[in-house]
Amino acid sequence: MANNKSNPASAGAIETNDVAQIPAGERHGKPWHLFTVWSSPNLEFATVFVGALAIGFGLNIWQGLLAIVVGNALAGLTHGILSTWGPEAGLPQMVLGRNAFGKFGNLIPSGLSTLVAGIGWFAVNTVSGTFALDALTGMGKLPALLIVILLQVGIAFVGHNLIQKWERYASYFLAAVWLVVIVMVLGHDGIFNVAEATPGAGFPWAGFTLTAGAAYGYTAGWTAFASDYTRYLPANTDKTRLGLAAGLGNFLSTTLIMSIGALAFNVLGAGSVFGANPTADFTKTLGGFGALTLLAIVIGSISANILNVYSGAMSFLAMGFKLGFKSRRAIMVALAGLVGGVISYIGVLNNDVAHQLDGFLLVVSYWVAPWIAVVLTERILSKGKNAGARALAPKNSWAGAAAFVIATAFSIWGFCSQVMYTGPLAIAIHSVTLDDGRIVDVPDITALVGFVLAAVLFAVFRGADKNSK
């Protein structure tokens, strides 16, 4: 702790502030640092795979690229906005969420963030990094899994300052490698080829909305802990510069790498998207540069999971549990890494990773869109009230939780379009019935409906909830 006080930017001291408000004497950093914080974790194969889903869902390359841009633009905009809340309040994102959800209602989104980021995304990215390290070295999946887990949990265990340094310097290496990858992918014949459409087929709304939803889910998934990495910045940090750095860092990196995924798998074909090891299939297109690309995929996966496990632990602590030990954040990181590691091991043994990642991404968008709508609407309606002070003394309000639960449940029931379940309202909007009775080509606008409905419901409920004002 003495190191933190003498040098608040020290990368070697274990962070002990957890979800407490950051004192003025420990504030440090610059807005542009957020560009690398949010670009580095997206320079990995999971991002490539989201773009590849466009081809797997039957879109042509131009339709796929448009869906990627739309999904990421919507997510990047709100990510930049929520990132600006950290310096003023000095608090993590899920703690600030108490203003909209109340003391007990905030248990719902905080718990979801813990499960989705600290365990779910941790497992997804660990599997990706493990496959890449095994393909690079041939050491076997279990040793590769252990190395990846130990690195990402170790860095997150130390905390905020080491994370910032890792993301910044990793981004330089990753950017250099991915620039070469981009050039090599663009050099392949046929990457912009457009497959001939089925005669009489209309615009593929199902594939378009599924791809846009997956892109949105991936990029907006970071927004649930946007201010976790801005709360150490000085309170007078320029909000415009900060919002642009965070929002563009997220949008540009995801859009660029997803686009490369769509282009590469446009050559490889839809079969490779849902194959046993799409990571290896992708790197085969890079010839002799494949080995360095695999190394970049490993580092990118670690960069992503450092944020996931760190913020997953912060989300758990934001639920308000009293654990009774000083380094509770670090200990929660270790526990989350253990649980996520077990799930990762199961994922490594399972060859159906592609379909599971698809479903996971869409589920992320199903809950995170209504959550963003509620906290954003509350911020607008609060009209400049001190967000930090209110979050540290939350009231027992119900408007946010009610709006969130109703909007999420209704949007999933009515508009979900998945293999195991398709919403009746989505079918009514657009669908095609095959000769065998199957209903296909159903658009998935769950996230969009959830966002709009949650914002409207919160505005209405807030008027009836005296503790929401």
From TrEMBL:
Transmembrane segments: 45-70, 104-124, 144-163, 170-191, 203-221, 242-268, 288-310, 330-348, 360-377, 398-415, 445-464
Protein keywords: Membrane, Transmembrane, Transmembrane helix, Transport
Single Gene Ontology MF annotation: transmembrane transporter activity
Keyword Transport recorded: yes
Topology versus the membrane: Multi-pass membrane protein
A single GO cellular-component term on record: plasma membrane
Keyword presence, Membrane: yes
Broad class of where this protein is predominantly found: membrane
Compartment(s): Membrane
Pfam families named among the record's database cross-references: Transp_cyt_pur
Family: Belongs to the purine-cytosine permease (2.A.39) family.
Full protein name: Unannotated protein
Organism expressing this protein natively: freshwater metagenome
Source organism phylogeny: unclassified sequences, metagenomes, ecological metagenomes
